[in-house]
Amino acid sequence: MKLLLFPLITIIVFALNTLPEHTTIYAIKPIVQVSPECGKLSDHRVNFTVNGFNRDGNVYWEFINSTGFVDPYGYFATNNTGGFDDYVIADDIYRDDYVISFFDDKNNDYMKDDNGVEVNVTYSIPCKSSLLDKFN
């Protein structure tokens, strides 16, 4: 019995040492707050309060309309927590449901960095009104 036990233990130890090591990585998605939550048809201010992108880098942002056309777009520099608190003036933007996309782009090449993250937020122009708004 002892002769069978040693090879069995050797096989188990070998198997445990050669199995791939599993590492759990928890990614924290950046926090992006856009206010107001929707816009007017005329020029208006859109505020961005953002945190959690790459520290001391650049975040590219763009408004993408329902047909995939991008306009406007730009960059904001991030602080030591990967955040910024800034705004844009939304002018010459037409009635549509937009996606505002934010992503890390340290070298300003309009492409997401390999280690970067991306967050998308929906933004409608004009604001959608509910049926109840007509009676208030």
Write structural notes for this entry:
The protein contains 1 helix and 7 strands, in the order αβββββββ. The protein has one helix at residues 2-18; strands spanning 31-35, 44-51, 58-64, 70-77, 84-90, 96-104, 118-125. The strands form 2 sheets. A 4-stranded antiparallel sheet has the order 4-3-6-7, with no helix packed on it. The chain has a 3-stranded antiparallel sheet with strand order 1-2-5, with no helix packed on it.
Defining traits:
globular, 7 strands, 136 residues, mainly beta, 1 helix, 12% helix
What is the element layout, followed by pairings?
Layout: H1 2-18, E1 31-35, E2 44-51, E3 58-64, E4 70-77, E5 84-90, E6 96-104, E7 118-125
Antiparallel strand pairs: 1-2, 2-5, 3-4, 3-6, 6-7
Q: How would you concisely characterize the structure shown here?
A:
With 136 residues, the chain is mainly beta.
Secondary-structure class: mainly beta
The end-to-end span amounts to 86 Å
| Beta-strand residue fraction | 35-45%
Order of helices and strands: HEEEEEEE
Sheet with the most strands, sense and barrel status: 4 strands, antiparallel
Helix content: 10-25%
Oligomer category: single chain
Average pLDDT score:
84
Quickly count the helices: 1
Question: Which consecutive residue ranges, at least 5 long each, have pLDDT under 50?
Answer: 22-26
Number of DSSP-assigned strands: 7
Q: Record the strand order, biggest sheet.
A: 4-3-6-7
> What Rg, in angstroms, do the CA atoms define?
25 Å
- Report the principal-axis shape: globular
